[in-house]
Design a protein that fits this description.
174 residues; four-stranded antiparallel sheet; mainly beta
Amino acid sequence: MEENKTTYKFVNHSESSPLSELKSIDVIAIIDSTEIGNIEVKLTNNHSNSISLNNPIYFLTYQLYDRKGKLIPSINKPPIPLINNKETLDPKEDWNFEISGIKNHQDWLPEIEEVNKPVITLLPEKSYTYRLKLKEAINNQNKPYTLKMSLSLISPTSEEGSTSNVTLHTEIQL
């Protein structure tokens, strides 16, 4: 990893263990100190089989705090699953952050198509990365910032009607 990048691991704070193959997914946030406000969230499938997930970008949230611990207000957008419309989702406008890239292992994918997929598939031993840009005004005068992120990994509902999920968290100093 390049020396100007820092990696933060998402962890499960719940006492319950995630069910099934969700245990084999590692999630990290990658921060590039030269590009303040840009974050990569990378999911890696360490399982020997493909894993399908409800699109994780729908379940990614964050809160940004200034150096005094005050919450910085963000543009309040409803979570994607709560939006009841038939329109195509826009990766630049429909989230509290801008989605500036999506990569499946080594290939960059069209954002507009990927954010509109209700389910993604993580291939065995491969990664899936979202490149995000925070929309809040971040400047060097108010550093350091604390960014608290949560991500829920939710398997699609099975034929029996069951699903498994886990919510992961990380705290990042910007």
